[in-house]
């Protein structure tokens, strides 16, 4: 467990996203399925298949001004109970799962060791809340697609395409239309 001081300590990636934060990120919907061996019990019952791993709103904040730390957001739904243990990508040294909490009036980020996920219930990582903290990221441009792999306690993994861009709220600051 590592705590980072939101304001003083850890840099632009997070300080900036704290300020911008109000709306949910815009991005395309990216769906992915587990790359586990296809089982013959491919039952699609009421809602989603038990094997489903659905990632949507997958966005990596465009790194600011040459900084190599940024944040990622997504929403994740599974067809079965599991626990998200890690995320990784080829374009960064390290990704941590972060949450934010208020401690003595100071907003702090803290690394989470994992996130429990209930079948059929979306887990949302979004500005001002849980996020992927991405360290040592290579230069990225708006519109780039980055593959991020999620690993679960069950041993399953799933890779999703994240779009590089800015969360919705900042949209007006750049180009209109
Ligand atoms: Cu963070």
From TrEMBL:
Gene3D superfamilies per the UniProt record, alphabetical: PCu(A)C copper chaperone
Matches recorded under PANTHER family: BLR7088 PROTEIN, COPPER CHAPERONE PCU(A)C
Domain of life of the source: Bacteria
Entries under InterPro entries matching the protein: LpqE-like, Lxx211020-like, PCuAC_sf
Protein name: Copper chaperone PCu(A)C
Organism expressing this protein natively: Hirschia litorea
